[in-house]
Amino acid sequence: MATRAPLPANSLLALAELLSLGPGDGDEDSADAAQGPAGGRSGPGSIGPLKAGGASAAPLPTEDGKAIWSAAEVPEGCAGDASWDPREQPEYEIVFKQQVRAEDLFLGMSRKDPSTACCEDMLIKIKLPDTKASDITLDIQEKLLDFRSPQKRLLLHLPHPVDATNGKARFLSEQATLEVTLRMKRELDFINFS
């Protein structure tokens, strides 16, 4: 049976100080008495050993001197909240595609099956009546498709990561449909497609 190492005494004292109000038990004067070692109020950050340089952490370096945060600190797709956008969302469909040869279909020589795990490409069809190709703005990221036109806006979180640099898009004016084909990149693709 494994035993746990005892907590350091200063951690327990800091926790006890945090949980107790002090001599007055509720007086406003006693709230000033429950201050941490640096003179500030005790809080969850004051439990445990003190970090070098005090309680405040150094700011992270930014790429631009005027930027609040760097691009690495913002997860992909955070800025894409379209809930405030008054434009309507177009109708869309996601279709998964795989390359099938005769030996796959008739002889079953590869490990391919009809599931999406064996698909290489993702085809996104966006219905756009009364839209011209020149009005379309399309931005593809690894997990996000951002489509904009004067009348419509679609912010689509993709079900699988894609290769954002090698996609194909075409506008079919007869059907008023934008077709975006993206190559998926997943961890186990080298097993599925070998």
Automatic annotation (TrEMBL):
Organism domain of life: Eukaryota
Signal peptide positions on this chain: 1-26
Any one Gene Ontology BP term: flagellated sperm motility
GO cellular-component term (any): cytoplasm
SUPFAM superfamilies the record matches: HSP20-like chaperones
Any one Gene Ontology molecular-function term assigned to this protein's record: dynein intermediate chain binding
PIH1D1/2/3 CS-like domain mapped to chain residues: 89-184
Biased composition (Gly residues): 37-46
Region described as Disordered: spans on this chain: 20-62
Keywords for the protein's UniProt record, in alphabetical order: Signal
Family: Belongs to the PIH1 family.
Protein name: Dynein axonemal assembly factor 6 isoform X1
Species of the source: Pantherophis guttatus
